[in-house]
């Protein structure tokens, strides 16, 4: 059905619409399903659940947060195969969640949201997708900030006649064996990909713009005895989860540049480099020129050794342009390639979903967020009534499990949706309350390594320079501030007088 055809069809009405079925959207759906009070639909543009864990299938993809922590607290998995589970296992976990919790029938697969607008006449959200129309009392965007690949602005990239793909859009039909391969980027994705590609490549060139800090990856396979223990005695898995949580939480002072914490992690990283890379020239190239923690600290035991293989080169000269044969460096040296892997991250600072969500004045979130995302309680936006955002502004973490942040928002939103539906109300953050909240975030960001560490990263908004993606405090503080909905700070409007509502409930 075309979009125009869909206009002739009656809109599907539901209480709650969720955009996305990754970790956050799926978790939100499970919370609503288990509560059993709300009618809800999940819109998913792809043909499967899983979000970034469905899309990132590159060789070596795995989580760099421990799986016993990087999983829902309400669905512990005692049988994680290892400390840092590989991507297929995480995707299986999400698929099983969707299936076992009865979420799949609620998901409309293959539907891309084209426009979501607040309709003042009905006080409902009106959502147009590539396959239909919906109306809802509450709209939840769970589109994530690692969902849309970011491509580098490099001259001539489209003229390359070899194969090109982004790390998040891996083409598995293309054999990478016996190829001349280039990888642009040295972030969390690239350092997992590089050791895998190097195994079979004729030659692999890693194009580094800035050196990352890398620390040892303390990974191991869980034995059958350990998995059996976690299965039979769930408290042991919970104790492990708690221990992992506090281990991550205790690292936050690094990001506030507390000297003892910085020195400890910095020497861990630099010793790792020294131990693994004896060659001084290569080590120099791999030594970061900014404070540790300014960008994500990476975990790997095989990245540095891979760079010392005879079929691998680290190129730091800088890319001038790409032509039909390969990459031309700033010194005019050229590197001919068969495959160019773009491992340059995601559109996290300017979220593409913001372009399709329109508020009371008709303007989109993207138009409001010219200087970066801003939200009340990191979850609601003034001028967008009955709208909640998961993993929106200032919800990312430099260290820690995003699942903790997601579960915090799930609870807040579930309570917010309860308030909206039970009171036939609509809630819209007071502009002043939102301004004060965002100001408190900016104040807390001051002095952090993200702003003062001397690097440029996607954590800072490219136009305003503000920290708009990361949460600048302890994870526990996020939960304390944003873990429970109250109407304070919101303009609340009731669809029908409260007396009439009470009367209706009694009869
Ligand atoms: P990323 O961390 O944003 O890294 C992008 C890399 O591309 C950086 O090295 C960057 O260099 C480089 N780059 C960007 N534009 C470039 C250009 N025009 N020319 C040359 N180099 C360029 O992206 P990512 O590695 O995909 O990771 C993104 C996020 O995904 C991570 O921070 C993490 O949150 C998540 N992730 C998690 C895991 C996991 O294990 N859980 C794995 C992968 C990804 P500069 O440093 O100089 O900017």
Automatic annotation (TrEMBL):
Coiled coil: none annotated. Keywords: FAD, Flavoprotein, Oxidoreductase. SUPFAM superfamilies: FAD/NAD(P)-binding domain (SSF51905). GO terms for molecular function: flavin adenine dinucleotide binding; N,N-dimethylaniline monooxygenase activity; NADP binding. InterPro entries: FAD-bind_Monooxygenase_sf, FAD/NAD-bd_sf, Flavin_mOase-like. Gene3D superfamilies: FAD/NAD(P)-binding domain. It comes from the Bacteria. This is NAD(P)/FAD-dependent oxidoreductase. It comes from Pollutimonas harenae.
